[in-house]
Design goal:
By secondary structure, the protein is of the alpha+beta class. It contains nine helices and 18 strands.
């Protein structure tokens, strides 16, 4: 745990302290910020308070007096719930405004890790609880230069794998081979693993109506044959097999034929325009040194979709945080599923992936963006600029 850095962040945010609470790993964000072993055994409640200045305090159960020993500060041991309350009151004396893993109105569910009863307990001590959402991402979503390069390398490998796979699909279709979504998915997964990448799930391979389901996944028992004339969506992700490696995550949509139908071309062009608009909004704000919240980028993309008559078919957020997990705990580009007011911070990575999902087919185009202090960097290049007829 970097106490100095955490306390600097607390003071910069205008808080009196940061109160961490956990019961049986209900708050894994606390473990990640504090550098605790997520594999350890914790069966009782614990709290850890870091004041804006001064010595932290751990409040721990007498059943597990050994926990949190790796953290600095004094230790208060409680046996009963009454003693826990007294220890908490003593610890928070003099502090008024406290950050916790709490999200007002559950606006950002991934940040809502403290239960309502514990919030009530702290508020009963006449404390103001504010969300730690922007604090958390400083410690779990900001990447090192080495991590950024690992992300770039994962992206380069994934794009090369995708290119080889599309060539293979085209060859097999021309040869009349029996291809299925599931068969291509397993081939894709094997190629990702052979390239030295690690993934937490098989890639999405979806044709036609299945591409209209954003999180569709084929199985050996439920799969569809891929034929000439089909629209094919490929969503794929992975990271290097190294400690601290960052995911890369991309989506391409292609046409299994020689000439793209007019309606599919129209939809792809709008998705591409929306993707590029989101990138432009983010780039402009970052280059001008202006703060930008996740919801603002999503709304700009969503407004464009709505103006063109397809807002109701854009059924998910514009993008998500990317870290050592595919869907990280930084700011998402979202004003649909949640109202994400977190700042998009320098040193973070996110996806930009608008889509249109119709009953007949769906189209999505996904790139990743590394945010720097005064610029942004799109990864997974070359990015998709056209709906490719792979049999042309």
């Amino acid at each position: 745990m970097d106490q100095e850095r955490i306390q600097h962040a607390i003071r910069a945010a205008g808080f009196d302290g940061w109160l961490f609470y956990d019961f049986r790993k209900s708050n894994l964000l606390a473990y990640r910020v504090l550098g605790l072993d997520e594999g350890g055994f914790y069966s009782r409640r614990w709290l850890y308070f870091i004041p804006a200045q001064g010595e932290p305090t751990a409040i721990i159960s007498s059943v597990e007096p050994h926990v949190l020993r790796e953290l600095p500060g004094k230790r208060l041991v409680f046996r009963s719930w009454q003693e826990l309350g007294s220890a908490l009151a003593e610890t928070l004396q003099g502090a008024r405004r406290l950050a916790m893993e709490y999200s007002p109105m559950n606006a950002i569910p991934t940040m809502a890790r403290v239960d309502a009863g514990t919030v009530e307990l702290v508020r009963a001590l006449d404390k103001e609880i504010v969300s730690s959402a922007n604090l958390v991402q400083q410690f779990v979503a900001v990447l090192s230069e080495a991590q950024m390069e690992m992300h770039r390398e994962a992206g380069r490998r994934l794009i090369a794998i995708k290119d080889d796979l599309i060539r293979s699909i085209a060859q097999q279709v021309r040869a009349g081979a029996a291809l299925t979504e599931y068969g291509v998915q397993q081939d894709f997964l094997a190629r990702i693993q052979a390239a030295g990448l690690v993934t937490d799930g098989a890639p999405i391979v979806a044709v036609n109506t299945h591409a209209g389901d954003p999180h569709y996944g084929p199985s050996a028992e439920a799969t569809t044959t891929i034929r000439e004339g089909d629209l094919l969506l490929l969503d794929f992700w992975g990271h290097l097999a190294q400690e601290g490696a960052i995911f890369a995550d991309y989506t391409w949509t292609v046409f299994v034929g020689a000439r793209v139908p007019e309606q599919q071309q129209k939809i792809f062009d709008l998705v591409r325009q929306a993707r590029d608009h989101g990138i432009s909004v983010l780039r402009e704000r970052v280059e001008q040194g202006q703060p930008v919240q996740g919801w603002e980028v999503d709304q700009a993309v969503r407004d464009l979709m709505t103006t063109n008559g397809y807002g109701e078919y854009f059924v998910h957020r514009t993008g998500h945080s990317i870290t050592t997990v595919e869907h990280g705990d930084g700011a998402n580009l979202d004003n649909l599923e949640t109202h994400d007011e977190r700042l998009i911070l320098p040193g973070t990575c996110c996806s930009v992936e608008p889509g249109i999902y119709l009953p007949e087919f769906g189209v999505r185009s996904e790139v990743n963006v590394l945010v720097h202090a005064k610029s942004i960097e799109v990864t997974g290049v070359p990015i998709q600029e056209a709906l490719i007829p792979i049999l042309a």
